[in-house]
Amino acid sequence: MSRSDATILPVALGDRAYDIHIGPGLIDDPNAYAGAIAGRDVLIVTNETVDPLYRSRVETALAHDHRIDTLVLADGEATKSMATLDTVTTRLLENRCGRDATVIALGGGVIGDLAGFAAAIYQRGIDFVQLPTTLLAQVDSSVGGKTGVNHPLGKNMIGAFHQPRRVLADIDVLASLPAREFAAGMAEVIKYGLIRDAAFFDWLEANMAAITARQPELLIEVIRRSCANKAEVVVADEREAGERALLNLGHTFGHALEAELGYGAWLHGEAVAAGMCMAADTSHRLGWLDAAQVTRIETVIAAAGLPTAPPATAPAARIHDLMYRDKKMSAGALRLVLLKDIGHAVLESDYGATLEATLARYLAA
Amino acid sequence: MSRSDATILPVALGDRAYDIHIGPGLIDDPNAYAGAIAGRDVLIVTNETVDPLYRSRVETALAHDHRIDTLVLADGEATKSMATLDTVTTRLLENRCGRDATVIALGGGVIGDLAGFAAAIYQRGIDFVQLPTTLLAQVDSSVGGKTGVNHPLGKNMIGAFHQPRRVLADIDVLASLPAREFAAGMAEVIKYGLIRDAAFFDWLEANMAAITARQPELLIEVIRRSCANKAEVVVADEREAGERALLNLGHTFGHALEAELGYGAWLHGEAVAAGMCMAADTSHRLGWLDAAQVTRIETVIAAAGLPTAPPATAPAARIHDLMYRDKKMSAGALRLVLLKDIGHAVLESDYGATLEATLARYLAA
To answer: How far is the C-alpha of A280 from the C-alpha of A295, rounded, in Å?
Structure first.
C-alpha cells in the first residue's frame, strides 16, 4: 500500500477539532505532519522499546523544519507518574520551549497519557501530536482527549482533558506488535461493535481471521471504524457526563480482575474481554440477550485470541468488593454497562441479583 | 452593612459561567455558598496565616450540609510547587473524594493558584470555590481561570485554565489587611482604569482617600468594577490570544524589577505600580500621553501608597536583559503594553529607542 491509501477521519470538537490519519508509511512522511506543528520546537516523548524502532524516522521526517529533542523514558506503567511528568516539563523548560512548542507522543497508551498531560499543563497548555504504536492506543487513547498519570493511591487519578492536534495511526507499526498485544487492542475494537455498531460487529465476525493475519486494508477499516465510533460518542459527550460511560463495557468487571490478578499479569484488553463476556452473561440473565447472541460474542472474542472468562480461581466475593470499591469514588449505586442487544449498550443499576449469579458462574466461592 | 448589600457579578463563560459575590459577611453566610457546592465532600485549602482567622467560620457555614476537611499549608510563594500540589491531591484521595467533591481556596493568590490547579487535575477536573482574602486576589486572580504552580526554572510555568464555580469576595477580610498589601492590590485596580476604563480612573482619582480608608461601599465598587473589567476581557479572550495581553500593563517592567530585586523584596503590586509609571513614560515619549496625563497617573499611584519609580540603583542594562529574557520564551519581538490615552492601552512592538530612554531616566547606567 502507498501513502495515498491513507484515510483521514475528522474529530469534530469545535475549536479543538483534529484529524486522525490512518494508513501505512505515515511516520516517515513529512506531509502527514504538515499543518499540525505550529512552531519550531518539538519534543518527542517515547520509551526504551519504541525508541530504537521509530525515533530516528520521526526525526528524519521533521528535521528540515523543526528543532527536535527526544526524551526516552522507561517502558511500563510506572512511567505514568508525577515524577516522570516533572521530567517532561523540566526538559521543555531546559529547552526554553514557548507556548508554540509541540510535544509528540511516540508510543502506546502510557506515553500518550503522560506526554499529553505534560502538554496540557505546560504553560497552561501547548499542542501535542500522537503517534500511537500499539493497536490499543490507535483505537482507544487516540480519541477522547483523556490524559494523565497514576497516583500511588489510584490509577489515572491525576489528569486533564486535552485534545491532540493530530493523530497519525501508522498501520506499519502493527506488523511487529506481539500477538498478545494485538489481541488486547482487539478487545476494545470488538467493544465498539457491541455497544453501538451491530454492522461493525458482523463485519468483525466475518473477517476476524484476516484481521488477526493483519491484512493492511482490514487494519485500516478496524482502526477507522473504531475511532469513528469513539469520536461520535466523545463529540456528543466530551466531558464524560452521559453516553461516554458506555465505552466502559466490560471495564468494571475488568478493572476488578486486573486489581485482583495484579496489574500486568493480564493485559488490560484481556481483562476487558473477560469482563465483556461476564457483562453478556448478566445481560442474558436479565433476558436481554439470548443464548445464541452470547455464543456469538464469546466466539468473536475467542477468535481474536482473547480470554472469554476470568481465571476460575479468583474469589467471587473479592471481585464483588473490588467492583464496589470503584463505585465508592462516585455518588450513587454501582451502575454496569450491559447489553440490550448486540450493538446496543445501556447503563443499568437495576440488575438485582443477576450480578451475583454471574460472579458465581465464573468465579470461586 | 448587612448581607443584603452584597453585589453579584456574573462572569459569562458559557457552560463555565459563574458568579462573583462581593460584600460583607459572606464567609459566614451559608446562603452565599448555596448552589456552588454540588457534593458532600469539601476540602478547604488554606495557609498558616489565614487559618486562625477564617477557617472555623467557613467550616461553621458549611458544616450542616457537608463533610469538611482542611489542609493548612505554609504561607508564601514556595507553597506554589509540584510537591505541595501532590500534597493536595493526596489528601483528596485519602479522603476518597469523587468527582463531585469541591475544593475551597481560602487565602490569597498563592492558595488560589495552587488549590485551583489541584482541582483542575484531580480526576481530570473537579469544582472549586474561591474565597480570596487579599485585595489583590479579589480583583485579580478571582477572574480569569488561571491556575498553576511554579517550576524551579520559571514562575507559573505549570498550570491549567480552570474556572471556579463561585467567588466570594468578602470585604470584611480587607479590614485586617496590612497597608502595604492593600496598596499592592490597588495597583491592579488602577491598572483596569488605565487600560480600558477612563471613567473608573476618574472615580479612583476622586475617591482615593476614602478607598485607602477602606470605606465598605467604596471597597465594593472597587472590587466590582475591577472584576467587571477583567471579566469583559476574559470573556472575549478566555485562552489569552489577544486583548487579554493588555492586562499585563506594567508587568513586563514589573517582572524584571521583581527578578532584579529578588522576589519578595518588593511586592508584585509595587513592582507593577513602578512598571506602569515607566510604561506611561514610554507612552509619553511616543507622543501618546501628554505630561499632565503622566502626572495624573503618578499622583493616583502615589495616593494609593505605591511607588512611582523603581529603585534608581537598579542597572538599566540588567533590567533590559530581564525584560528580553521573558520574551525569549515566546516567538517574535518584545511587545509592550503602552497607553494611547488614559483608559486606552495597546500592545506595541514599534517603540524604537523610547524604551532605552525610559530605562535611562529611571535606572542606573
So the answer is: 9
Annotated active-site residue in A64, A96, A124, A239 = A124
Which sequence spans correspond to the domains of chain B? 3-175, 179-362
Give whole-number Cα distances, A149 to A113, A146, B55, B87, B96, in Å. 7, 10, 32, 15, 18
The CATH number of B3-175 is 3.40.50.1970
H or E element in which residue B294 lies? helix B291-303
For helices B82-94 and A82-94, the axis angle rounded to 10 degrees is 160
CA distances from B49 to B76, B134, B153 (A): 10, 12, 27
Instruction: Give pLDDT tens digits along chain A (365 positions).
Output: 444 557 999 998 888 899 999 999 999 999 999 999 999 999 999 999 999 999 999 999 999 999 999 999 999 999 999 999 999 999 999 999 999 999 999 999 999 999 999 999 999 999 999 999 999 999 998 888 999 999 999 889 999 999 999 999 999 999 989 999 999 999 999 999 999 999 999 999 999 999 999 999 999 999 999 999 999 998 887 666 678 889 999 999 999 999 898 877 899 999 999 999 999 999 999 999 999 999 999 999 999 999 999 999 999 999 999 998 765 555 567 899 999 999 999 999 999 999 999 999 999 98
Burial of A41 (0-12, 13-18, 19+ CB in 10 A): buried
Dihedral angle at the C-alpha atoms of A240, A242, A244, A245, nearest 10 degrees? 100
Phi, psi of B35 (to 5 degrees): 85, -10
B179-362 has which fold?
Answer: Dehydroquinate synthase-like, alpha domain (1.20.1090)
> Rounded to two decimals, what is the model's pTM?
0.92
Nearest chain A CA: its distance from B47 CA (Å): 23
Cα separation, A338 vs A345, in Å, equals: 6
Q: Tell me the three state secondary structure of residue B27.
A: coil
**Which DSSP helix (H) or strand (E) runs through B41?**
strand B41-47
Mutate to test the interface with A, among B121, B126, B324, B327 (most CBs of A within 10 A): B121
**Which grid coordinates are listed for A277?**
463476556
CA-to-CA distance for A1 and A15, rounded, in angstroms?
Answer: 33
Instruction: Provide ipTM, 2 decimals.
Output: 0.90
Answer yes or no: do B160 and A121 touch at CB < 8 A. Answer: yes
